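Suppose you are handed a protein chain with no further information: no name, no annotation, nothing but its sequence. What can you learn? This example shows the usual starting point.
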Amino acid sequence: MILDEYTVIMEPPHPPGWRMPPHAHVQSEFTFVRQGSCYVRLGDQLYLLQAGDVIYLPGGVLHGHEPYLHQEVSFIVVQFPSLPDRLHRELLNTGDIGLYRLSALEKSRFIDYCYQLQREIARGLPHTDIQCRAFVDQLAVILLRCGLRQGEPDLTTEQQIAIDRALQWMHQHFSEQLRISDVATYVGFSPAYFRLLFRRAMGISPKQYVLALRLQSSKCMLMQPDRTIGEIARKTGFDSPQAFSKAFRQFTGVTPTQWKQTHMK
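A reasonable first move is to predict its three-dimensional structure. Written in structure tokens, the prediction is:
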């Protein structure tokens, strides 16, 4: 039963002075602090959790909650079967647990996936177990990518909307002779400021993103026997077949012809 394997608990605020004695769960869990603050005790260690923090507790880890000052606190708790080994190992950034502090945008995404998971559990449609696992894995990825930010400030809502508009524009026009300055103008930023925000949001430069779009599109065309290298280069926005072949090899490690031979047996 999915209800036994996955649980999302949207807890009401606990009153000031609330505490939970040491206990352990059979399942693993993410505990997201929605408001307020509290301590989590693991053995002799006390960890302060504040609004926006998430703690990853693998199944069997003994822990308790203790009050911080005189604050109420509320949580979203997601309980699930153990994670795949790779995700589990990477999430353990503090001994036997994981501790993460989410930005405003990450908090919004985390909560949204929690609601989607809760709805999926309630509906109980075919393949719900696969969908629930996918949502839990998404929550784990949010935490892991949060750890890669290295203190960079998060985008504001307006900046994120502008980046989303830029992405839509890039997907529509990547096969043209697209200049990054044109995209920046489209969303109302200077080129330098747009590059800064784009890298902060996406983790790569706008130029690298457009190149990836072009090369992904070229793979689809390489699967069509009647397409020539020159035609593919032209239709994906490259200046010449040589420029296309060079970029393709740098991206995949093989030439377009070699990739086609491998994937079209």
